[in-house]
Structure to design on (40 residues):
């Protein structure tokens, strides 16, 4: 279940980034989301 969520989230994030700088910010947001998910 967590793997499916991570894949879906990564797909949405990658589809939303338009530049290298945007990609870096998106990766950071994914990392934060994973951390929050791990704390639950």
């Amino acid at each position: 279940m967590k793997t499916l969520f991570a894949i879906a989230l990564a797909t949405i994030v990658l589809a939303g980034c338009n530049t290298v700088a945007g990609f870096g910010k998106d990766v950071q947001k994914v990392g934060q989301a994973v951390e929050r998910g791990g704390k639950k």
Residues 2-39 form one domain. The chain has a mean pLDDT of 76. The chain has one domain: 2-39.
